[in-house]
Amino acid sequence: MNCWPALLSLFSLLGTFLLAGGVELTFELADNAKECFYQEIEKNVTSTLEFQVVTGGQYDVDVTLEAPNKEIIYSQVKTQFDSHTFVPTMSGIYKACFSNEFSTYSHKLVYMDFQVGEEQSLPGLGEHVTVMTQMESSAQEVHKNLISILDYQTHHRLREAQGRKRAEELNERVLWWSILETAFILFIGIGQVLILKNFFTDRSPSQSY
């Protein structure tokens, strides 16, 4: 069973949404294709680029991160997953490119999380000029824990989808191997029956001398 439509519908739930000035999405990368994403980042704002190949081929892509002055500040070749944190030395538009140009037949599903800056605090707590109350501190802690849970859930979804895809590929290989073995056994069985039948076939009188 092909799980490609199911995977696309699963990760469409992730969608594309802003995360502290960044973007998180899952996209399809065709064979011999290259996809680039652009993000405007201010100087000295800590940013993180995280990616993972969910399905397809050998689960690897080429990745480059380019600064506004065309300088390559991060590069990986045929990598399944990685995370890179950097502090920009200049403001401008940074470009993250994912390449599958080395593959001639396998489409891939790639997850990318481009975070810019720190996660925003709860509304009203960031402007506090006095010490937070116990309830406000608890709310802030719950907020941080929920963000961590969301991140863990995303990674578990990726691993579950990757494991399901591999299991289905293995199941398909086992199925075809079983079909070939069955055909081979039938061929040998029929051949043995014909040979044994030929041994016990009555010969004509002309063949007895």
Brief overview:
The chain is 36% helix and 31% strand. The chain has 209 residues and is of the alpha+beta class. The termini are far apart.
Description:
By secondary structure, the chain is an alpha+beta fold. 36% of the residues lie in helices and 31% in strands. The chain is built from two helices and nine strands. The protein has helices at 4-12, 134-199; strands at 17-19, 22-29, 34-41, 47-55, 61-66, 72-79, 81-86, 92-99, 108-116. A five-stranded antiparallel β-sheet has the order 1-2-9-4-7. A four-stranded antiparallel β-sheet has the order 3-8-5-6, with no helix packed on it. β5 and β6 form a beta hairpin. Residues 1-20 have low confidence and may be disordered.
Order of helices and strands: HEEEEEEEEEH
Beta-strand proportion: 25-35%
Distance from N terminus to C terminus (CA atoms, Å) equals 62 Å
Low-confidence stretches: 1-20
Helix count equals 2
Structural class: alpha+beta
Question: In order across it, which strands form the biggest sheet?
Answer: 1-2-9-4-7
How helical, in percent, are the residues?
25-40%
Instruction: Compute the average pLDDT.
Output: 78
Shape: elongated
Radius of gyration: 29 Å
Please describe the biggest sheet, giving its number of strands, its sense, and whether it closes into a barrel: 5 strands, antiparallel
Give a count of the beta strands, DSSP E runs of length 2 or more: 9
Oligomer: single chain
